[in-house]
């Protein structure tokens, strides 16, 4: 018989081994195998959980208060047989101490000219290999057991400090993150992620901003600025479905964002300018950079199986606020919903790329867009729809605007002119990088127009645009229906376009135009418009413009559009001249000249080197026919 003292010492030893010794042994095994520092404070036998867990890897520190487990066998609220619960996660990036260091090491891309030329020669002489498709295989046991497991993370906090100029601090948090697996059709595996109560901020020290305000006299005595540059509160639902029968292939990705509330402050624009300036290269090695940067075709071949067959993004109840330098509301906007869907056919998609494009289509719909400034400037759009389709050598695009109303008040421009006037013109940087930005963009468009047949259709219903300027009355232009369509063949050899305008009316002042049609667009062209109302500088009942290319010989330059012939038909044209129109034009010219004072002086370093290109022949013939013209 063991004595009571021996039994007590044995129980204490076992308790110490389980709660203290086992965590240290587990930490040592993880460090030895994964080269990741991990510390487990203790094991709670009552909660069956690890407590005070610390994980460090590559300057990243993860602190977890408690890691436990639960099951639907013991908890009716849990839906999975086995689920891991993680409480109070804090993720931080350790800041490196730059003091006390020696001379900084040379960057990896700084090399001598001889090394650069030799590397460029090797890049040119080496043959390009066919990119390999990344293939992943998921074990059948993972597919079977995925439906029984889940992870719940409570109270997550992330802090990341950007050490490079311009410095900023990212702070993100979430109330709860849920990850659940599912098995579909015995071969498809799905992952569902739900993030609730997410909120993130980008912070920056306000010392420099206060000095700038003090210099311009915009700051107020005792006023303090909010250190945040941008804030966002959002809830997220993510669903990923993949086919794991043989080789893993992505099938469906669905993203749902609910009630995102975004607050942007004026200092964010200055931060982005500084970030772009810091990222501008001074000395570049174009051969090596082009070698290290893979092409679009290479990326498509490599990640072809990771592109989803169906991708959908839904955003509901979006709110946007823009705050000026005095923390006052300058712009407020809202969106009822955004729906983006893409469809891809993966079978035989990259065999003839880039001659033939894969079967790919997108559809975007935006509902109830509202932007309101402090005064009367506003933008209202009931619905915007955009559809694109890529099939073989054809690219088709169609967009539609429903009930677009734009109003401008000159008093709201003070927010933007105040910001622009505080910006100092940046000195021209001493750079050896060739200016290839515009040329690269134009080359991309030329390749698109040369290889594929492009068709575009844009349609607008119930559109109005108005504005007021100092010294003039309110002007407004309304349009009931407009349609523009254009078709370009390969190498832009043939061009065909059509423009239709129905019931275009321009008014000055508060004029209730009685001839604005109240009928449907089908019979709008035949509606009576014989009555003229004073205060209407221009009114067009119907305008039809047709464009077509003129056949040319084989000696034509393929880099430019062929000569075009235009035919226009204008019906029921009414023009009016009044003193109000003269004062409006005078105020418009004076106002545009005042705006130039706030524009930044941008001097091109290569303006003298640019040679003016002589444009080719654009229009071969133009014919215009007008009926029912009245001038007042």
- How many structural domains can be distinguished in the coordinates? 3
Q: Which consecutive residue ranges, at least 5 long each, have pLDDT under 50?
A: 98-113, 123-127, 211-222, 429-436, 513-529, 601-614
Q: How many DSSP-defined strands?
A: 20
Proportion of strand residues: 35-45%
Which structural class matches the secondary elements?
Answer: alpha+beta
Please report the number of helical segments.
10
Q: Largest sheet at a glance?
A: 20 strands, mixed
Gyration radius, in Å: 33 Å
Helix content: 10-25%
> First CA to last CA: what distance?
122 Å
Q: How would the global form be characterised?
A: elongated
Mean pLDDT: 78
Helix/strand order: HEEEEHHEEEHEEHHHEEEEEHHEEEEEHE
In terms of quaternary structure, the protein is single chain
Give me a quick take on this structure.
This protein has 632 residues and is of the alpha+beta class.
Can you describe this structure?
The termini are far apart. A hairpin with a 4-residue loop joins strand 1 and strand 2. This protein has helices at 4-34, 113-125, 140-145, 207-216, 267-278, 286-292, 296-302, 414-422, 437-451, 579-595, and strands at 37-44, 49-57, 60-70, 82-93, 149-162, 168-184, 188-203, 228-243, 249-265, 310-323, 329-344, 357-373, 378-392, 394-409, 453-468, 475-488, 495-508, 538-549, 564-575, 619-631. It has 10 helices and 20 strands. The protein has a 20-stranded mixed beta sheet. By secondary structure, it is an alpha+beta fold. The protein folds into 3 domains: 4-93, no CATH class; 132-211 and 225-278 and 296-386 and 404-423, no CATH class; 446-511 and 534-550 and 561-595 and 617-632, no CATH class. Pfam families: Hobbit.
